[in-house]
Amino acid sequence: MIETLGPMQSITIPLPDLVATRTLGHALGRSLPPGTIVLLSGDLGAGKTSLVQGIGEGLGITEPITSPTFALIQEYLEGTMPLYHLDLYRLEPADVAGLFIEQYWEGIECPLGIVAIEWAERMPHRPDAYLQIALTMTAGDRRSATLTWIGDAPSPLPEVQQAIAQSPLVP
């Protein structure tokens, strides 16, 4: 169920294992519109890259999706729309500003797609509208994902919730 908090909408989903995390990502890849920015937060090992791998699968991307910790940015252009995967773990906010990551969601220099940013808390500023996904370890391999739409643009959460309902591995 979507909880509305003023201009924000939120869903919390229990994830029993990494398979469910990837399945959630797959549902996101099938349901998010081009131009969606996904800001990911969570401790090391919380499943951020696994979630992005699932997004890629949902977009029909067949090449392996790996963590761009050292490359910083990986571009996957072969699916139904591009997936831009960024990992800011090794950067300070001043370094992030020099990357001009806005080009990935402005649609001017790069075709619009889904922009997934790991360690987004290192961004010096946030876009006007985005999907915040906080992955939290609960017990053992169990996690929870809290998806929060922030901004005035129309929320994709109803479509996401419908795609999740059609995914058998996400409770």
Walkthrough of the structure:
By secondary structure, the protein is an alpha/beta fold. The protein has 5 helices and 8 strands. It has an 8-stranded mixed sheet with strand order 1-2-8-7-3-6-5-4, covered by helices on one side. Strand 4 (73-76) and strand 5 (83-87) form a beta hairpin. Helix 1 packs across helix 2 and helix 1 packs across helix 5. The protein is globular. 41% of the residues are buried. The model has no long low-confidence stretch (mean pLDDT 85).
Give the topology.
Layout: E1 3-5, E2 8-15, H1 18-31, E3 37-41, H2 48-58, E4 73-76, E5 83-87, H3 93-97, H4 103-106, E6 114-118, E7 130-137, E8 143-150, H5 157-165
Parallel strand pairs: 3-6, 3-7, 5-6
Antiparallel strand pairs: 1-2, 2-8, 4-5, 7-8
What can be said about this structure in brief?
By secondary structure, this protein is of the alpha/beta class. The protein is built from five helices and eight strands; from the N terminus they run ββαβαββααβββα.
Spans of at least 5 consecutive residues with low confidence: none
Averaging pLDDT over every residue, what do you get?
85
Q: What's the Cα radius of gyration?
A: 15 Å
Strand order of the largest sheet: 1-2-8-7-3-6-5-4
Number of DSSP strands?
A: 8
